[in-house]
Amino acid sequence: MVVDVMKAFLLGGCICIIGQLLVDLTKLTPARIMVIFVVTGVVLGLFGLYQPLVEWGGAGATVPLTGFGNLLAKGVIKEIEEQGFLGVFTGGVKSAAAGITAAVTFGYIMAIISKPRIKS
Amino acid sequence: MANRLGQQTVVLDKPAIILGGAGIVGKKEGDGPLARYFDNVIDDEYAGEKTFEAAESRILMDAYVKALEKSGKSPTDINLILSGDLLNQCTAASYAFRDVNTPYMGLFGACSTMTESMALAAMLIDGGSVDYAVCAASSHFCSAERQFRFPLEYGNQRTPTSQWTVTGAGAVILGKDGQGPKITAITPGKILDQGIKDSNNMGAAMAPAACDTITRHLMDTGRSVDEFDMILTGDLGKFGSEMLRDLMRRNNFDLKNKHKDCGMLIFDLETQDVDCGGSGCGCSAAVFSTYILDMFRQGIVKRILFIATGALLSPTRMQQGETIPGIAHAVLVEA
Amino acid sequence: MLSNTEGRCRAISNKLSKHEYQKMVEQKAPGSQIIRNLLAAFITGGAICAVGQIVLIIFEQVLKADKETAAASTSIVMIFLGAFLTGINIYDNIASFGGAGASVPITGFSNSIVSPAMEFKKEGYVMGVGAKMFLIAGPVLVYGIFASVVAGLVYFIWKQVM
């Protein structure tokens, strides 16, 4: 168990290092970097190249945005297997349903409860 | 009657007298090296208001009221208010002055607004159309961030060349008579765009404009750098100031130790985590209306060239791939 | 052939062309402390993923959820965590330290949704919170979903061909 947590720490840290290199060495904005990570995750997921990372590093692979992309790809493939062509349109959002809905819900709740403050 | 001198400068026949000034700032600025010069430091970023925009109008209004008080003038003496800020449609200024029952002309010069308003007011006073004017400008970290960059709680990492938008407002009362330092000449600036695209490097975007205006003023008036006690820029910040020195040297002017920058005066760059220093209209406005006027009062300075610098960027144009133009207006202030 | 105004400009301060000035700025601008940033990103990102792993373990082993449910539940918890830390005004401090270590994990995605929602509340719940919630995260959803459609088409065609 502890080993799993350590592996997650290691893999997650490495993926974030790649992100930081993009921030410091290129003129890419944060938004563009997030897009690159998600799309990369989709592409790797499509060719089954991301799964080994998930098996090894667990949350270290699923928590970063590439993991979200992988989730979208896996969802699309699963839906196509089960529903045929319609799966192309339903698969992605279906698998991301929990994430998107949670984001909207908690975002809304936090907007009601909290006030933005200047950085200390 | 004013006289044009050289290519761009205007020498005033009837200098405009700075009768008094006031500056109101936020907490971070109140923790800085110039704390004791400011007239008031607000408790938090909301200044008792519901929104950041209203807070900015509040501090601008307070600076105006205090400046009037300190110059011994009443609101009915004022013929014209010239003011502006960074917000879309200049709402901080227009909402601050909507109830004062005084003619108002809004300005947009980004962070150069303070000297833009002082230059215009001085010309109007010299020409005889205005007896007493208010020149004021403001900025607010929170209202600027949400408009130009990101929501406050968003986790973004600042780059080493970035500057901290000052939460502050400054106002001065200019008049045809009375006691105080005088604006004796002005040099309006040209827009200069040297192709800087990084909105986190305002200093580099504005330095060429500052260099152009200062050089133009020195050449038009035939003065050397030594004849000034201070050449004070608005908010070039640490890196922008370095660029300015380099550019001035290429024009054969050595700024020596005469150059100071409001963005570097208002914060302690070592301890306050502001990267290259302060920025915003309120930066130059608050520093000049308090600290600099105090230096004149105490006789520490007798001749200052005050150049507020502005970066005329727009998030929309930047997303369209445009670069950042800069502008800088100079006013010559003499005891 | 320079026009008169261009000539005046040149004479004064454009001793450097645009290109030369930009080069000078690039050379002299203070650089980020890359090593420090990479280390901070590693630690922050690693820590957040480690927390995710612990949450996953709790769902799988303590609450005995199946793989899919555990994975989805972990995402929800991590998104809540990001939202909560944003709401108590802490996430921006974490990101200030950790950079990409805070923006790449799903908690960063959450922060990019919650922060505009909080910020634009002042413009009302419909046009402020509602309309601007996806101001920053929008591209992630648009491009993620679009990429998944393209991936789906590729997969579908590949299946037909095989």
Describe this structure as you would to a colleague.
The complex is a heterotrimer of chains A (120), B (335) and C (162). Chain A is mostly helical and 120 residues long. Chain A has one domain (2-113). Helices cover 82% and strands 0% of the residues of chain A. Chain A has six helices and no strands. Chain A has helices at 2-25, 30-46, 51-57, 59-62, 65-83, 87-113. The model of chain A has no long low-confidence stretch (mean pLDDT 93). Chain B has 335 residues and is of the alpha/beta class. Chain B folds into two domains: 3-175, Stage V sporulation protein AD (Peroxisomal Thiolase, Chain A, domain 1, 3-Layer(aba) Sandwich); 182-334, 3-Layer(aba) Sandwich (Peroxisomal Thiolase, Chain A, domain 1). Chain B has ten helices and 14 strands. In chain B, helix 1 (27-30) links the parallel strand 2 (9-25) and strand 3. In chain B, helix 6 (202-221) packs across helix 7. Chain B is globular. The mean pLDDT of chain B is 96. With 162 residues, chain C is mostly helical. In chain C, 79% of the residues lie in helices and 0% in strands. Chain C is built from nine helices and no strands. Chain C has helices at residues 4-12, 18-28, 34-62, 67-87, 91-98, 100-103, 106-119, 125-132, 138-161. In chain C, helix 7 (106-119) runs antiparallel to helix 8 (125-132). Chain C starts with a helix and ends with a helix. Mean pLDDT of chain C is 89; it is low at 1-11. Chains in contact: A-B, A-C, B-C.
